[in-house]
Amino acid sequence: MKSLVCNNEAARLEALYQYQILDTPPEEAFDDIAFLAAQICNTPIALINLIDANRQWFKAKVGLDVQEMPRDTGFGSICIESGEILIIPDTLADERFATNHIVTYPGFCVRFYAGVPLLAPGGEAIGTLCIGDRVPRQISPKQVEALQAFSRLVVRQLEIRREFAQLASIKQEYKQGQEALLDIVTDAIVVQDLDNKILLWNKNSEELYGWKSEEAIGKQSDELFSTEPLPQNLEIFQTVLKDGSWQGELQKTSKSGKKLIVESRWTLINSEHSQAKSIFVIDTDITQKKQLEKQFLRAQRVESIGTLTSGIAHDLNNVLSPILMSAHLLKSKNCDQQTNQMLSIIESNAKRGADLVKQVLSFTRGIEGNVQGQAAIRPCTVLQVKHLILEIQQIISQTFPKSITVYTEIQEDLLPICANSTQLHQVLINLCLNARDAMPTGGTLTISAENIWIDETYVSMHIEATVGAYIILAVADTGLGINSEILDKIFEPFFTTKELGQGTGLGLSTVMRIIKEYGGFITVSSFVGKGTKFKVYLPAVNQVPIPLLEDTEILTGSGECILVVDDETAIQEITKTSLENYNYRAITAGDGIEALAVYAQHKDKISAVIIDMMMSKMDGATTIRTLQNINPLLPIIVVSGLVTSDQVPIDKIDEHTAFLPKPYTTQELLKTLHAVISQ
Ligand SMILES: Nc1ncnc2c1ncn2[C@@H]1O[C@H](COP(=O)(O)OP(=O)(O)OP(=O)(O)O)[C@@H](O)[C@H]1O
Ligand SMILES: [Mg+2]
Asked: Where do the Histidine kinase domain residues begin and end (predicted)?
């Protein structure tokens, strides 16, 4: 039987190489074929021989210990050139073969050879399936047929092997494509099995939840989002199993403890046999949307409360006026002493009622003014706050419990402001009353006032501020502190934690309204168990720049290099510029990971690090710990808009570290920097 053999060496080699078989480990399928060939032909030697450009390499071998031999050794090359079965019953009997190394070399001594070419589907002879013996012998036609069948089996096996590899690579590409697609979408995509074990965690899940894919995969989902209420999870899980899907809002917590609200869509994935296999979860971050919604609802609520109360107050006025007038009239008639006394009681109580109404009305008018975006006309005079503070100090010392010590700290040359003294009085009294209530067992109340020049650095961190001269009126207590959960509610009208009848919850909202009327703003920082400080910023009348303190000279750097880590580019840039203006050099990093990379690279150059606590990729706390592991003496300034100390991971006693609440001015930054560096 003559085959169609392709004699082109290049095509032959190409056909061989596409199988990617050379130098691969032994495989059972090929070993079995070689074994059967030796068995059926009853020879001690059988080989699956693949013929490379310069060598013969054996994919399977029986009775021979070498893995490969030169191309011209043996009879393989002769066999593939002819493209036909080659049978040599006695190698020594034919002078063409008698001198071949495989015949003469004592280790081989091959006397019998039969080889069938391995023909690829294109007809290329890529090798042989051959048998051999050390004694001369014959081979029956049936054995020849078997050898030919085995040679076809070898090629088929090679084909299967190649298709399998192709399929695997297509599958891999498909998988990579799928993963890339999952990473492109802006949602967090998570696949978990029915035991809640995470199987897939896309890039956006890493960004949203802070867990790296290698940290998340294999974990239980509630290990990552520990604050999710478990019963709710169970209910969702059961719904998904029953209906195939679930959709709704969930509260989750990121690795750094950030509370997130996500719109979550769960879909059940079934196996080919329609068995529930896993759950596909898509989470869209709606935290900000929710916050805006909350703000909007709050504004609406405040507005409707305002309208409602002003209506009631108005009606109450109408009720109280006739009572007052009548009581007054009756008193002028000559009644007996007891009646007169009762009339006086009626009159004074009705007056008190009218005063209350006036108070409510003044409050609601303020709200209405704010809601409509127009500040009320402010009756204002140029005011020296110092006198006001001293006056308040006097009232407090006379009326507050003796267990509360009052201090005042007023900067000399405090700039005047433009305000109404009664209203400002109201602001300070409200803050002081709150401070008193926060110190039921006594403590220290400090009222202070100082000038401050609000610069661009500060403005970039606080939207209500504008560049210019302000004074800060601060009221600090050493009381209970405010829990971070209620901190953003305290300025809401009617928000109070005090018992019924003890507080209306209007104090701080009134303070806020008045301050806003004067173009100012208020910040609060509070440490639970340690105390609270409210800072009221009011624009000074005299808008000339306030020179930095005389020690500016000392505060200026000497070319030290500072690493600024903040995930807001605007803050990064302005901090860098400010530092450079004061003879520091600055390198910036946008997140914790980048910061560590930069620090590792410029360790010897960097004198201090300024780092923001809340960053999405690797939070400040982790970054700081890692930096301190590299260099325990590295001066670090932790900055944060957060106001609770428990979230600031620095050792309060360590002089190389400092906490600087955001927003801050360049001067505050320079001062703090100078303090940590000079330690
Ligand atoms: N210095 C402070 N320390 C601790 N908590 C405070 C402090 N100031 C305010 N708060 C909290 O903020 C809440 C709201 O204060 P706000 O002054 O608006 O109302 P109130 O004091 O409860 O009532 P009102 O001032 O109308 O008598 C308080 O109930 C309290 O929980
Ligand atoms: Mg109050």
From this structure: 311-542
Buried-state track 90-121, b at ≥16 Cβ within 10 A, e below 16: bbeeeeebeebebbeeeebebbbbbbbbbbbe
Contact at 8 Å (CB) between 279 and 265?
no
Q: What angle do CA 197, 202, 206 make, to 5 degrees?
A: 90
Residue where the block lists tokens 């399929």: 167
The mean pLDDT value of the chain amounts to 85
60, 131 in Cβ contact below 8 A?
no
Q: How far is the CA of 497 from the centre of ligand 1 (A)?
A: 7
Residue 152's Cβ-side half-sphere holds a number of Cα atoms within 13 Å equal to: 6
Is residue 102 within 8 A of residue 24, CB to CB? The reply is: no
The enclosing H or E element of 458 equals helix 456-459
pLDDT of residue 330: 84
Place of tokens 């009348």: 541
Which amino acid, one-letter code, is at 364?
T
**Ligand nearest to C-alpha 529:** 1
**Cβ(467)–Cβ(455) below 8 Å:** yes
Domains and CATH numbers, the chain: 9-165 (3.30.450.40), 185-285 (3.30.450.20), 294-371 (1.10.287), 381-539 (3.30.565.10), 554-677 (3.40.50.2300)
265-277 pLDDT per residue, tens:
999 988 878 888 8
Q: What is the residue with the minimal CA distance to atom 12 of ligand 1?
A: 490
CA of 509 to the centre of ligand 2 (A): 9
Is the pLDDT at 6 greater than 60? The verdict is: no
**Ligand 1 center to residue 673 CA distance, Å?**
34
Mutate to test the pocket of ligand 1, among 433, 496, 532 (most ligand atoms within 8 A of CB): 496
The pair of three-digit structure tokens given for residue 430, joined into one six-digit string: 């409200």
CB 225 within 8 A of CB 188: no
CA–CA separation, 362 and 368 (whole Å): 10
Residue type present at position 532: T
Closest CA to 639 of 602, 609, 616: 609
Length of the chain: 679
Name the residue type at position 479.
G
